[in-house]
Amino acid sequence: RTVYLNGEYLPETEARVSIFDRGFVMADGVYEVTSVLQGKLLDFAGHLARLGRSLGELQMGNPLSAEEWLTIHRKLVELNGIHEGMIYLQVTRGNPGDRDFAYPPEDTPQTVVLFTQSKPGLADNPQARAGMRVVSVEDLRWGRRDIKTVQLLYPSMAKMEAKRRGVDDAWLVEDGFVTEGTSNNTYIVKDGRIITRQLSQDILHGITRASLLRYAAEAQMQIEERPFTIAEAQAADEAFFTSASAFVMPVVEVDGVALGSGRPGPVATRLRELYLEESLKTAI
Ligand code: PLP
């Protein structure tokens, strides 16, 4: 695999980052994941905009222009022959040459890493036909979940808890309400209405979420942005989650309770089709 590191395209075995890198010792970095379908980038403008915002919230500059980011993404897709898959990008505060809590001087070069992951079957995903099962886990993450940082230990722990309990993912719960999934935004459907938590510092502002809600509104579907509980999810007609890599993923069971028919519902199924169709129109 060819990866990108600080201006160079390299074989992955030759890409090296300092042990003092702030990303390594402090999780001081942000990332984005953009999916590739039919060799094209989905929701690219949204991902770049959020990258800029995450960097800004952490007082980091954006090391590259929009055009440069696009060129690197496209080149990696081409060099690695990615038809369906993902591109991961990460920017850290770089290598201050030692470990220190204070940020290094602003002219310290940031570390920029991008790599691809080939994922055939991303669009025609058997899991989307079966639906996923989730369990609730207490949300013990930090208070700025709107910043897409690389500190992902707690979501990893929650994912492992879900696996231990024999299901696919965890829905995180704070003060009795679902915040989001380990790596996705969560929704329920009741009487045809799509219910999803409103944006705040409590959740990541999903790029897939933003596009999907726009497409759903254009299709005259009813949307309610508010928090919901696990009990409400268990009594819902349907549930699903969204992320750049899962698109729209039906959820068929919450904490052992099957939803509706126990199969992916019509709204989630339609929204998945709608998202794939519409996002491909603006893919670049
Ligand atoms: N929420 C969390 C915590 C995430 O990690 C992610 C994606 O990684 C999402 C939501 C979904 O965001 P997006 O649709 O931009 O992939």
Automatic annotation (TrEMBL):
Gene3D superfamilies: 3.30.470.10, D-amino Acid Aminotransferase, subunit A, domain 2. It is an enzyme of class 2 (transferase). InterPro entries: Aminotrans_IV, Aminotransferase-like, BCAT-like_C, BCAT-like_N, Class-IV_PLP-Dep_Aminotrnsfr. It catalyses: L-valine + 2-oxoglutarate = 3-methyl-2-oxobutanoate + L-glutamate; L-isoleucine + 2-oxoglutarate = (S)-3-methyl-2-oxopentanoate + L-glutamate; L-leucine + 2-oxoglutarate = 4-methyl-2-oxopentanoate + L-glutamate. Keywords: Amino-acid biosynthesis, Branched-chain amino acid biosynthesis, Pyridoxal phosphate. The keyword Methyltransferase does not apply. It holds the Pfam family Aminotran_4. Its EC number is 2.6.1.42. One of its GO terms (molecular function) is branched-chain-amino-acid transaminase activity. Pathway: Amino-acid biosynthesis; L-valine biosynthesis; L-valine from pyruvate: step 4/4; Amino-acid biosynthesis; L-leucine biosynthesis; L-leucine from 3-methyl-2-oxobutanoate: step 4/4; Amino-acid biosynthesis; L-isoleucine biosynthesis; L-isoleucine from 2-oxobutanoate: step 4/4. Its cofactor is pyridoxal 5'-phosphate. GO terms for cellular component: cytosol. One of its GO terms (biological process) is amino acid biosynthetic process. CDD domains: D-AAT_like (cd01558). NCBIfam families: PRK06680.1. Acts on leucine, isoleucine and valine. Belongs to the class-IV pyridoxal-phosphate-dependent aminotransferase family. PANTHER family: AMINO-ACID AMINOTRANSFERASE, AMINODEOXYCHORISMATE LYASE. This is Probable branched-chain-amino-acid aminotransferase. It comes from Paracoccus aminovorans.
